[in-house]
Amino acid sequence: MPDADCPFCRKLAALDRLPPEEVVWQFPHGVALLGPWQFYHGYCLLVSRRHATELSQLPGEERSAFLAELCLLARAVEECFRPHKLNYELLGNQVPHLHWHLFPRDAADPDARRPVWLALDRAGRDEAEKRRLQTGPTDRAATAAALRHQIRQLSVVSSQLQRQETPDP
Asked: What's the confidence (pLDDT) of residue 1?
């Protein structure tokens, strides 16, 4: 059940009112949102449609499907932006609603070997750092469009493979 006090539950209830570049893809079990920190080009969040605070709280099949959606989103980020490394983070300390952070890391990142959260902490205290981390190499609409296109392509390929693997009755 949605939690009226949860910012993600409120956001999911109002997806149609969000800027179009914020909602990357609506999966059956999660919603991919373009994150604000586009210095990490393609940074996304995958938010569970079900309010849960721990991955273990999702029923088994739903958990598996949610993780498959995460993998599909990760492949799209990798195909679109070719990061040196992709960091996956599932925390929930600040917003206790199940959500993944996907941070594409570039080899030229001056903090490439440090956790992203250290730079984001600096951005909370330094307006210039905040602007730097919010700015990507392309505008948000183009980034979201590229991800949508790639997810669509990967979904078609995945569907074709599933049909090939399903034996005829």
From this structure: 73
How far apart CA 84 and CA 106 sit, in angstroms, is 5
The answer to whether the CB of 98 falls within 8 A of the CB of 53 is: yes
Say which CATH topology domain 7-165 has.
HIT family, subunit A (3.30.428)
Beta bridge partner(s), residue 33: 23, 45
Could you tell me the residue ranges of all domains in the chain? 7-165
- pLDDT score for 38: 97
Q: Where are the beta strands (DSSP E) in 30-136?
A: 30-34, 44-48, 85-90, 99-105
Residue 155's Cβ-count burial label (10 Å; 0-12, 13-18, 19+) is middle
This prediction has a pTM of: 0.91
Residues 58-110 have pLDDT tens digits of 999 999 999 999 999 999 999 999 999 999 999 999 999 999 999 999 999 98
